[in-house]
Specification:
This protein is mostly beta strands. It folds into three domains: 10-108, no CATH class; 117-237, Immunoglobulin-like (Sandwich); 245-367, no CATH class. The chain has helices at 120-123, 204-207, 223-226, 338-341, and strands spanning 13-19, 26-28, 40-45, 53-56, 63-64, 74-75, 80-82, 85-87, 102-108, 116-118, 130-135, 140-146, 152-155, 164-169, 176-180, 190-193, 201-202, 216-219, 231-237, 244-250, 259-261, 264-273, 280-284, 306-309, 317-318, 324-327, 330-333, 346-356. The longest helix has 4 residues, at 120-123.
């Protein structure tokens, strides 16, 4: 019998809520015994319609991108990724530290900012030079590269075939181009845009109609992923039992919706309809409230989802028609919202764990 390989997901993924102060602010993570230095952090105001923000330890921790926009990279002076959290550095930083505003920070640990330079001509891994940091235990790598304008391949450092990755052009305006292994029957021919509600697009010059391998992912000559002399960032993931699951499902349009078996109690889920337009639906167990309106940090079955959209700057709102249950071994869809459970609609999801259903020793964590 196979068991999970990660017993404590909080060592690699953490959701942190905080309130803005309008002045220099340091946020301490209460995860992994207080030892959680993020390598990729995604921030969003909950009660204010402002942009999403992404920082990472590979590009330089002051460099910001906006998941809901196609804008090029900019700089937030003084922003730091700390040994046990992060700091805004400067006062009144727009979108991430406004006085009176509440925030969510989704955070992933990679390799502490330590990178490997892949000279493709010397290693014969890939055809385009790249720099990556990888955490093969957590199935996550951060890759930077400079485009060539010609079809090629990029080393990702995972050691296994990635399940999904998203690429963003840093030096110019361009969309967030996303590959997902369950998007269609031939996912290497297709892509989604993180900042857009658009359905799946079939386009050969994005991934060169070539599937990723255990060592590389492929690029065509489209400027979104491979313009000559432009700089890019890619965030790459493969599934890890007890920690992450990246799948697909078909909606049925009723309150007894599909059950997504994940092998863990989910902490953060992203859902996207792929056959037609639909927002990127972001939910987590930490922001949920229970049916009495109190804070719900356990992701109970009585929770009401507090929804954000990856493709929009909208403030958080409660959507009962989109609701589902966070269960010990997966997620049960119960709503009829077209973005999550339209009858006959096709959907992808990205899920990260709060607790594995079964530990590496074969003991259900819910029984401990």
């Amino acid at each position: 019998m196979a068991y999970t390989t990660i017993d404590d997901p909080s060592a690699y993924f953490h959701t942190r809520l905080y309130s803005g102060t309008g002045s220099a602010l340091s946020i301490t993570n209460n995860a992994n015994a207080g030892n959680f230095k993020p390598d990729w952090i995604w921030l969003k105001s909950r009660n204010n319609a402002t942009n999403h923000n992404v920082f990472d330890s590979s590009r330089g921790q002051t460099k910001r991108l906006y998941p809901n926009l196609s804008d090029a990279e900019d700089t937030v002076s003084g922003f730091t990724l700390d040994t046990n959290g992060f700091s805004t550095g400067t006062s009144s930083v727009g979108d991430i530290n406004v006085s009176g505003k509440t925030y969510v920070a989704w955070q992933w640990k990679c390799n502490g900012g330590t990178t490997t330079t892949n000279d493709a001509s010397a290693t014969s891994v890939g055809t385009i030079d790249s720099v990556y940091q990888a955490n093969t235990t957590a199935g996550f790598s951060i890759v930077t590269y400079t485009g060539t304008g010609s079809a090629g391949t990029i080393a990702h450092g995972l050691g296994v075939v990635p399940s999904w990755y998203v690429v963003k052009r840093r030096s110019a305006t361009e969309g967030w181009t996303l590959y997902h292994h369950k998007n269609t029957s031939a996912p290497e021919t297709d892509h989604l845009l993180l900042e857009s509600t658009a359905a799946t697009v079939d386009q050969a010059d994005i991934w060169n109609d070539t599937s990723p391998t255990s060592s590389v992912f492929s690029l065509g000559n489209n400027s979104a992923t491979n313009a000559s002399s432009s700089t890019y960032i890619a965030y790459c993931f493969n599934e890890i039992k007890g920690y992450s699951k990246f799948g697909s499902y078909t909606g049925n349009g009723n309150a007894d919706g599909p059950f997504l078996y994940l092998g863990f109690r989910p902490k953060f889920i992203i859902i996207k309809r792929t056959d037609t337009t639909g927002s990127w639906f972001l939910i987590d167990s930490v922001r949920d409230i229970n049916t009495l309106g109190a804070a719900n940090t356990k992701g109970s079955a009585e929770a009401q989802h507090q929804q954000l959209f990856a493709d929009a700057s909208d403030a958080e709102a409660t959507y009962n028609s989109s609701a589902g249950d966070f269960l010990s071994n997966g997620y049960k869809l119960k709503g009829t919202n077209a973005s999550t459970n339209a009858s006959g609609g096709t959907f992808i999801y990205l899920a990260f764990a709060e607790h594995p259903f079964v530990s590496s020793k074969g003991v259900p964590t819910t029984a401990r």
